[in-house]
Amino acid sequence: MLQKIIEISQETCNGCGLCVDACKEGAVEIRNGKARLVREEYCDGLGSCLPVCPRGAISFIERDVLTAGSRSGQWPIQLKLIPAQATYFKDSHLLISADCSAYVRRDFYADFLQNKVLLIGCPKLDAVDYTEKITAILQNNTIASLTIVRMEVPCCTGLAGAAGAALKASGKNIPCKFVVLAVDGRVLHPSAPDR
Description:
This protein is an alpha/beta fold. The chain has helices at 18-22, 101-104, 108-113, 123-126, 131-140, 157-170, and strands spanning 2-8, 28-31, 34-37, 58-64, 92-98, 117-121, 143-151, 176-181, 187-190. It has a five-stranded mixed sheet. A two-stranded antiparallel sheet has the order 1-4.
């Protein structure tokens, strides 16, 4: 699967290490006096390392990145970190899930995730309104369908509300399904949107 990652010019890099400090994912290290992308699968493609490089040695490329053992097929999966446009969104079936959902639903992968692009988030822990990010993803990509899986707890209403508002704001007619899970993992409300 193609993913946007960084590339570091070994000829231009002076080994200052500023990019290592800027990379919160731990994808970049200094080896033999030069910065190197040592874990492609960790690179979130957001480029927090680019502006700190005093030599301009870092650029973006698209590469087929193996996410070994991953059932989602893309990285990152956290809604705050995901880019608004990516090749894996093309004609995708998008699953937006509350962080907790995969842990309470034993068959989460088989029931919801299979053949979908996964985005996870928690409005309570992230303290953010996801509406703008989801709207940008829906507007900038060809999404075939949208499924939102949330928990029955009140803090999850923000995730479903943001997805519903984003779908409306996108101006697109994308088939959408809302699923509410009980804290014991049972499906309480398939296709029950939060209004």
